[in-house]
Amino acid sequence: MEWRANGILLSVRRHGENAAIIQTMTAEHGRHAGLVHGGAGRKLAATLQPGNLLALRWRSRLSENLGTFEAELIHSYASDAMADREALATLESMRALVCTFLPERADTSLYPLTLLVLDVLNDARGRRLAYAQWEVALLAELGFALDLRRCAASGSADDLCYVSPRSGRAVSRAAGAAYADRLLPLPGFLARGDSGADPSDFADALTMTGHFLEQWAGRSLDLKTLPPARERLAALSLRSKAL
Questions:
Q1: How far apart are CA 26 and CA 5, in angstroms?
Q2: What's the sign of the alpha-carbon dihedral 45, 50, 52, 56?
Q3: Torsion angle of C-alpha atoms 50, 55, 60, 62, degrees rounded to 10
Q4: Rounded to whole angstroms, how far apart are CA atoms 183 and 178?
Q5: Which of 71, 135, 152, 170 has a CA between 20 and 30 Å from the CA of residue 13?
Q6: Domain architecture of the chain: domains with CATH
Q7: Cα–Cα distance between 131 and 112 in angstroms, integer?
Q8: Model confidence over 96-149: pLDDT tens digits?
Q9: Could you tell me what percentage of the chain is helix, strand and coil, using 3-state DSSP and rounding each to the nearest 5?
Q10: Cα distance between residue 93 and residue 50, in whole Å
Q11: Is the pTM of this model over 0.85?
């Protein structure tokens, strides 16, 4: 068995003296693990940085076996994120959510949007928009799609600013005014598809998507909390909002 594909490196775990087991994300094979001979050595240290885009070759005698990877670096997104605390936290959160929620060895429509987030890591407004959209897309891929296009009460597409925590449907300002303290925020950039997001709107977006990731997706897997990396990104966004 053999396949070749480009993939995003999700995690690296040392195996034995000089090998490593890596987890990758590809469009055709989803979250996929394999052994890299020499993966714990200096020669591949720069290549096997979580978040990097790799050219992968996977081989195994049987399809159900772990198999081995050969990996070549295409782009070092890991180094792109190092200079920006929020960019690094975004990358770590995205990797953690993929490893937590996506099934192994299943194709995923989330791959192109994941690459988009990586491509805009150094653009703060674009990164916040892309990542918030990515979490909405992750929920949809897991079977928990949100409806952010029209008001659940009136059917209007105007002035949407809340989301029902029970149904995951948008609510307009007028329809939700009496229940505002019980509704989740819907940032305008998600409702309108703006070109970017400021820190305050990004924090509101993470509050909203975080609720559904924890209460819907997390509970379906019997998880009590979201991954620590996702919690760190949310906490960082709230601190930025307060400034």
A1: 7
A2: positive
A3: 90
A4: 10
A5: 135
A6: 2-75 (2.40.50.140), 80-148+186-242 (no CATH)
A7: 12
A8: 999 999 999 998 999 999 999 999 999 999 999 999 999 999 999 999 999 999
A9: 45, 25, 35
A10: 12
A11: yes
